[in-house]
Design brief:
- The structure is a single chain.
- The chain is α/β, with parallel strands linked by helices.
- It contains 14 helices and ten strands.
- The chain has helices at 3-6, 14-24, 37-43, 61-69, 74-79, 88-100, 114-122, 134-147, 159-175, 190-201, 216-223, 245-254, 263-277, 283-295; strands spanning 33-34, 46-51, 81-84, 104-109, 126-130, 151-152, 181-185, 205-211, 257-261, 303-308.
- Helix 10 links the parallel strand 7 (181-185) and strand 8 (205-211).
- It starts with a helix and ends in a 17-residue tail after the last strand.
């Protein structure tokens, strides 16, 4: 798929999400949904947590990567795939490529969490390291593609990725069709845009959740244009990327709002998910609950869905160790 094709949002529909759901069904988990009476009382609404931390590779990213890789032609598979990612998409593409019998090359920032580097290597992908900024990642991918024209599977700015990520919200709303709103974290926007398409088709409102220390998506939505992230310093490492043309167009059209939260609220949400639900959720995945804890639910909303996007946490460096609950 070319860059121009990858940025064509006209092809991203609820029908594409349905096709993606069938395509990935043999490979991806249909993840469970949890709730907690204690959390419901704290938030002031019934909250249904879609546990994508229990997805293969420990994150929702496997859905999009699986959809992308299994939609490739045999000729494209023979060339192999390439991407850049700080971790979860990297692991997801590595596993999807292995399942399809396809070579994967992953460009990773050199400061990516060790747990995520190890996961990518364990799935047999070749890792190429680069500096920890978007320009360096993209430059590294271009240089590698100049040597071998592998199929680019962008972490979020790709219609195949958006359709695959939307299957999580589709499942959630199949199980709980009375949800009035769905919250999802936003970094590059693949999950939020896919969630928005699925939720809007079911008549539910959609909200993005973002760290205040990396609030480029919220600022972009208000400005009506993409405002690139500028040296974000947030514990939510999976949300440090900027939106792409595909995801931004969908978010502008279908997302009600993007709400930002403090680092302290993110850590509190992580701890609460462990204490009340016994779920290990990474900082990025805890951001939607942090929004509900810090800001409450939208007016008139009594039933909320939350996508817990991943659970790849370095257990040796739990962030709440030195912060009281």
């Amino acid at each position: 798929m070319s860059i121009s094709e990858a940025t064509d949002t006209n092809n991203v529909t609820i029908a594409d999400i349905a096709v993606a759901a069938e395509r990935i069904r043999p490979y991806a988990h249909r993840t469970p949904v949890f709730s907690s009476h204690g959390i419901n009382e704290l938030v002031g609404a019934k909250v249904c947590f879609k546990a994508e931390n229990m997805q293969k590779v420990g994150a929702f990213k496997f859905r999009g990567a699986c959809n992308a890789v299994f939609s490739l032609s045999d000729e494209e598979v023979a060339r192999g795939v390439i991407t850049h990612s700080s971790g979860n998409h990297a692991a997801a593409l590595a596993l999807a490529a292995r399942l399809r019998g396809c070579e994967a090359v992953i460009v990773m920032p050199d400061n990516a969490p060790t747990v995520k580097k190890d996961a990518v290597a364990s799935y047999g992908a070749r890792i190429e390291f680069c500096d920890s900024n978007e320009e360096a990642r993209e430059a590294a991918v271009r240089a590698l593609q100049a040597q071998t024209p592998r199929e680019l599977v962008h972490p979020f700015n790709d219609v195949r990725i958006v359709a695959g990520q939307g299957t999580a919200a589709r499942e959630l709303l199949e199980d709980y069709p009375d949800l009035q709103a769905v919250f999802a974290p936003v970094g590059g926007g693949g999950l939020l845009s896919g969630t928005a398409i699925a939720a809007k088709a079911h008549g539910a409102a959609v909200y993005g959740a973002e760290p205040a220390a990396a609030d480029d998506a919220a600022r972009s939505l208000r400005a009506g244009k993409i405002i690139p992230v500028d040296h974000p310093r947030t514990i939510a490492d999976g949300l440090r990327t900027s939106l792409g043309p595909v995801t931004f167009a969908i978010i502008r059209r279908d997302v009600n709002d993007i709400v930002t939260v403090s680092e302290r609220a993110i850590i509190r949400a992580m701890r609460l998910l462990w204490e009340r639900l016994k779920l290990v959720v990474e900082p990025s995945g805890a951001v939607p609950l942090a929004v509900l804890l810090e800001h409450g639910v939208p007016s008139g909303v009594e039933r909320v869905g939350v996508i817990l996007s991943g659970g790849n946490v370095d257990l040796g460096r739990l962030p709440w160790t030195n912060i009281p609950p």
